[in-house]
Amino acid sequence: MTSITFHGGIKEIGGNKFLVEDKGTKIFMDFGVSFGLQNMYFSEYLKARGSNTLIDLIELGMIPKMGGLYRLDYAKHVGLEDSGEKQIDAILLTHAHVDHCGYIKYLRPDIPIYCSEESRLIMKNFDDTGKDEQYLNATEKFQLKEGKSGKTKGEMVKETGQKIERKIVTFESNKKFSIDSIEVEPLPVDHSITGVHGFILNTSSGSVANTADLRFHGRRPGETEKFVEKCSEASLDLLLCEGTRIDASSSKTEFDVEKEVTDMVNSTKKLVVCGYPIRDLDRLQSFYNAAKATGRDLVIEPKQAYLLQLFTDSLGSKNPYPSLTDEHIKIYMPKGKWGLIDKDISVYTRRLLEQDYDEWARPFLNLPNMIDYSEVSKHQNELMFSLSDFKLQELIDIKPDNGSRYIRSLTEPFNDEMAFKQEKIKNWFVTFGLIKSDKDWHTVHVSGHGDGEQIKSVIDGSAPKKLIPIHTETKNEIYHKKFHSNVTIVNQNDKFEM
Ligand SMILES: [Zn+2]
Predict the structure, then answer these.
(1) From ligand 1's centre to the CA of 278, what distance in Å?
(2) 18-52, pLDDT tens digit by residue?
(3) How many angstroms separate the CA atoms of 180 and 420, rounded?
(4) How far is Cα 135 from Cα 108, in angstroms, rounded to an integer?
């Protein structure tokens, strides 16, 4: 008997956590953050308490209450009953978007995470450049030891926890592997982050596919087509089918984005400032291509530079994205902790300048294509300057000339909090002359998710016997029903028997 329990990712967009049980094998497909619940209860200043995280998240229904799943340091600290034995055999990760992977950091490090190499690199980027992210390793918290000397001799004192590496198992696209009784076929699909895989699971009660998040209008539509073909060959018993934009009727393509951006850059005399998601490397590619086509260089921020470096180092000649040494790439170093980038190095020393930055960013100081605000300011008509919403202060130093422009390539706000944030962001661009009014606020963006037609073709092409809608709002489940005759609607924590 095989069952799937839905601990998130149904009747909402994201938060996927599907527990698959087959002959004693237990795996979770994704272990993501529910943005819906997070918005409902939390804000920038109201969060789960650091010392009580697991209980806070369990009580609010954000993660399931389960033994043998969570890190023992966290679980024991809040008195969660746990036998100490691992109860879950693996996490099978579709991709490294937070609504699919965000709660991995609370899991036991001995539960293996099966993911693509690209997803591993993106999670490494989170770990190395973020604050207290713990995707690839877990640093033990709440540890004590006996004081050895001084005032605390013989007393219990806090101990710096050990860093425990998680078991990360990277799979190869299209190459089947088994987790105990479940055979997994990982199939790449096109989405707004690289390394995404849908899965076909062969279980003792039949075959199940999980679409992950997908579309046909990105740079890699062929991958999604191949996924559907494989699903069709598998004569699926069940399809878990996403429906984020199933109510939408059309989609621009990533190539449209590239063309629009290129046209906008061509008609801009001075600096082009651009905002796009830094981990969407296919979008980076669109901006990079636009820079190349218009004879400009693309200036990227350190976190994105670090990600590109990880891809080059790991994938070598198979890396499809620009390398840091590319002649159209420049790396921007913002002011560090002391702001020494523009200070006299003979006074402040090279060592102090390096200490101005986190370790991962220091090597960029030595690259010949590293630039700072004064270079950007001087060469405005030669550059496209990528600037994320969290780094807008750079505009104060750069001072864009008249005739500069901002191109926004990010998702539109879909709730009040996001709309409120966007108003603040606009204020910056108005103040620095990059937009004059709301009229000049152009968003050039395509979604990572297929529209109704696209999802219909996934359903028709895969021809599953049964379908369960995932990653979609309740109001949109009617579309799945329109597109398939045997749809089962499940609720949070429902167990579906195959
Ligand atoms: Zn996604």
Answers:
(1) 14
(2) 999 999 999 999 999 999 999 999 988 899 999 99
(3) 48
(4) 11
